[in-house]
Amino acid sequence: MILLSVAGACAYGVADFLGGLASRKAHVLRVVVISAPASLAIELVLLPILGASWTAGSIGWGALSGVASAFAFSLLYLALSIGPMSVMAPITAIVSALLPAVVGLLDGERLPVAGVAGIPVALCAIVLVTMNRQTAAEKIPMRAIAVAVLAGAAIATQLITLDAAPHDSGVAPLIVGRTVSSLLVLSVVLFVRTSHKGKVPVVIAAAAGCLDSLANLFFLLAAREGMLSVSAVIVALYPAATVLLAAVVLKERIRRNQWLGLAAAAAGVVLLSTASSAAS
After folding, report:
1. Average pLDDT in the 166-174 region?
2. φ and ψ at residue 170, rounded to 5 degrees
3. 136, HSE (Cβ side, Cα atoms, 13 Å)
4. How large is the C-alpha radius of gyration of the chain?
5. For residue 52, what are the CA distances in angstroms to 71, 95, 175, 181, 182?
6. Which residues contact 217 (CB under 8 A, 6 or more apart)?
7. Bigger pLDDT: 20 vs 130
8. Does residue 82 contact residue 144 with C-beta atoms inside 8 Å?
9. Which residues contact 146 (CB under 8 A, 6 or more apart)?
10. What is the pLDDT of residue 199?
11. Most buried by CB count within 10 Å: which residue of 84, 145, 239, 246?
12. The whole model's pTM is what?
């Protein structure tokens, strides 16, 4: 379960990095129009391998996750466009981690001492990894903070609804969810006028969608094997993968606080894995 959660965090982090690169060159909606169907294609390829059970529960919860996913995309990119990324990212990640953790605990999940300690360590890691001292003195609009919180809530809702689908439903919730989100995005593009400046990097946009699909799959499998409160927090460490990739590919310098955040992320994963082992 821990390895699946870590794989999900890495996949989400790389997907965000690629999606960010693509969105620098073309309008966000034009990028998502490519990435969303690419994500659906991956899930359809996995269908014969993992199977699917098309029950009312898998279809209903899958559809709700798709609506949440569509809102998560739009709200996340809006937050990053109206506020500093180094502030918006941790707000979004923390909210997306806390809400599923609370839902899991209210649903009866019980964490040992290591898990109770691991959650705040992981949340601190998110802040440290994404924190930039240059933005500390900036006046951040309350609108930007509100949108970031809503984006985190939308992401959390997607994770919670995926976990709520029947555990024997295979990839049915993922296929239904991605179909719904793709249709919603396509509908918005048809009615919203977007800038055609810049050519959409099709390969990068499609790769982002494929990785996002795999990240959803890893999370779903992890949540089915273990606890939602643990898997959601580990998955929310995805900014660490984005930061490392930016350092390797874009040659961005990793600051001291970010190195501390990466170390805290590793410590949080170890604590949560210990908690998961003790609970199983």
Report:
1. 92
2. 65, -135
3. 6
4. 18
5. 25, 30, 9, 19, 20
6. 43, 46, 171, 174
7. 20
8. yes
9. none
10. 80
11. 239
12. 0.82
**Which has the higher per-residue pLDDT, 199 or 140?**
199
pLDDT at 134: 52
Q: Which residues contact 163 (CB under 8 A, 6 or more apart)?
A: 100, 220, 223, 224, 228
Query: Concatenated DSSP letters for the chain?
Result: -HHHHHHHHHHHHHHHHHHHHHHHHS-HHHHHHHHHHHHHHHHHHHHHHH-B---HHHHHHHHHHHHHHHHHHHHHHHHHHHS-HHHHHHHHHHHHHHHHHHHHHHTT----HHHHHHHHHHHHHHHHHH--GGGTTS---HHHHHHHHHHHHHHHHHHHHHHHS-TTSBTHHHHHHHHHHHHHHHHHHHHS-----S---HHHHHHHHHHHHHHHHHHHHHHHHS-HHHHHHHHTTHHHHHHHHHHHHS-PPPPHHHHHHHHHHHHHHHHHHHHHHHH-
Written as six digits, the tokens of 41 are 């294609």
pLDDT beyond 50 at 139: yes
Q: How far is the first Cα of the chain from the last one, in angstroms, to the nearest whole number?
A: 11
* Distance, CA of 234 to CA of 269 (rounded, Å): 7
Nearest to 166 by CA among 253, 26, 52: 52
Token readout for 163 is 């976990």
Q: Which of 161, 216, 184, 186 is nearest to 39 (CA)?
A: 216
Give the residue from 117, 88, 66, 91 showing the smallest Cα distance to 230: 117
Average confidence score pLDDT of the chain: 80
Instruction: Give the pLDDT band (50/70/90) at residue 157.
Output: very high
110-114, 149-153, 158-162, 207-211: least confident range: 110-114
Closest CA to 23 of 100, 109, 85: 85
118-122, 126-130, 205-209: which has the highest mean pLDDT?
205-209
